[in-house]
Structure of Isocitrate dehydrogenase (NAD(+)):
Amino acid sequence: LVEEQLARVERMKNDTGAVDYSKLDQIIIGCCGGDGIGPAITAEAERVLRAVLKDDVASGKIIFKQIDGLTIENRIAANKAIPDDVLAELKACDIILKGPTTTPSKGDGPNIESANVAMRRELDLFANVRPVAVPEEGIDWTFFRENTEGEYALGSKGIALDADMSFDFKVTTTQGTERIARQAFEFARKNGKKRVAIITKANILKKTDGKFLELCYKVAKEYPEIEVDDWFVDIISANLINEKVRKNFEVFVLPNLYGDIITDEAAQIQGGVGTAGSANVGNKYAMFEAIHGSAPRMVETGREQYANPASMIKAAELLLRHIGYKDEADRVIAALKIANDTIKMTGRNDGATGAEFANCVIENL
Amino acid sequence: LVEEQLARVERMKNDTGAVDYSKLDQIIIGCCGGDGIGPAITAEAERVLRAVLKDDVASGKIIFKQIDGLTIENRIAANKAIPDDVLAELKACDIILKGPTTTPSKGDGPNIESANVAMRRELDLFANVRPVAVPEEGIDWTFFRENTEGEYALGSKGIALDADMSFDFKVTTTQGTERIARQAFEFARKNGKKRVAIITKANILKKTDGKFLELCYKVAKEYPEIEVDDWFVDIISANLINEKVRKNFEVFVLPNLYGDIITDEAAQIQGGVGTAGSANVGNKYAMFEAIHGSAPRMVETGREQYANPASMIKAAELLLRHIGYKDEADRVIAALKIANDTIKMTGRNDGATGAEFANCVIENL
Ligand SMILES: CC(C)[C@H](C(=O)O)[C@@H](O)C(=O)O
Ligand SMILES: CC(C)[C@H](C(=O)O)[C@@H](O)C(=O)O
């Protein structure tokens, strides 16, 4: 089965560059729960997708596929960030909804790379697109985080030279930078945005961020109608919370690690990392996820049914938009707003469960 | 003269490890204006220092020394981040007050390293201490930013492998990490702080940040009365603006670049990067500065007299505290608060000038 699907997917994708979902007669949505609260909140988001897509699910146009194997236990057993069979299953889907995964990071744990980072690399999901909006404050930002290189390029393979000195590497390539810059400017053009801000620390990391800055400006020349300027990442972390200037920003393009830091801050402005979804997009595959972690402590204390699925439902909304279901995406957003305003989630048994939250979204679709 | 002072300074500093300012019969404060608005705001901060220290200035215990040569023009001419004569002058002071300097960062400009970064390295100012307080919100944070290594270690010397690929390096050493960790924990102990938070991205940069995390925990064992925990830098950028959790943080210890980013964000919470001063401290030297840039556009448009000297006065306050003038430091802080509440600075001629602002501080000392 996996091989059959793989062949099918390869047939459709090989020569197109980017997938045109409207040309697919069938769309396979892979639901990959991950670790911790991941399976619980991913299941709730899947229920929302099934509800809003119910006619196309009934007709067989939309197919859901469960991918359960991306757990920390399996990854430790396989000694791989993504076990081979799981990677094959992921590649057999047209689009992926993924729950958070756990990465051992302490010196005493197994030394396994982040599954997120590995997936972004293996599926070449080079653009991490993170929208943040606070309409009442005039904030409508879209971040284009480069998603496969920079500080993340070597899959955590630095060098411990000796007991005294360790190195890690930041890598910036021409192709890697130009393609994320082009995504940002294309998005700006197609969505009537007036401005793109390039974020670097090119005064310090002159070779990598200097290259990133230069190439973004080069790509910008193809989009003369769009204003472009550049900022250092430190002052941007201040400007995002500076009410006098932050409304002026629209689209950001930034290297991997700065995107990681700055989008968490931005998500907090919107209400918390639990409110933000993230699109990981490449030319062949696309994966949608929450931007927060797997909250293992909630599971240890038996509270996973109280985990808030809002971020995964937000990810599902981005997924719908990506495969061309714009109205459905708008309906999910509207219903999500109602649920956020109505349902009180505390993460404990004095609040609602994730299922109750998702039910409220579904009732209001 | 320079040589005489150099000899004097070497005599006093060589065997002490850290300078004990109370043992000096004379303290030479170097005032180094820098670029852009730097000279203007540094001069105002010097006036405040002279006023609050007037008896010791009259008695000759405190001496001010002007160091004018750290300009972008001189640095380009010398093709050095700090021209040799300026470095010698800096080393002949006991303590330094420094205005912002300009770093050319665009590909088309001269390729000169940041003067800040070079000074931190040349004077081995390994601890960048940045306090941020918002008393009415219960915020009282002190950041211990490692100041000589990490992404800044190699003085912007990365590698452009070929036209396609560039590398920069992050370097973490045992000694470099242990000494900043020790500063943070010592500060916590001496100031009755209960908690230290270690900030890294050790799930990705396993060799460098992993080492940093491990060594901070090792140093923490010497301070069993202090609680310690660790956070990833992305979630910290969210937590700093999360009103539910941010009050719980007290002392932070973090690698160079994260300190750069996170302290700008923290300064904005306090009122803007223009409100924050920064102490750069080593075992032999200490340098105090604003955390913002040199605002060349203000100078180009002839507005430097309207630049707000609050950040440099804040730096002067930190300097006073460092050399043991605690009461004077408290008086500056109190007067600065009055000036902030009374004087309206707009950066334009519809606001007050920097001199008017400093006068208000001086009148209220
Ligand atoms: C889990 C972690 C590896 C990941 C990252 O650093 O990219 C996460 O923080 C994110 O932003 O998606
Ligand atoms: C000017 C620049 C090199 C410097 C830095 O990056 O450290 C500044 O942003 C700071 O925080 O002091």
Q: What stands out?
A: Residues 248 and 294 of chain B are 34 Å apart (CA to CA).
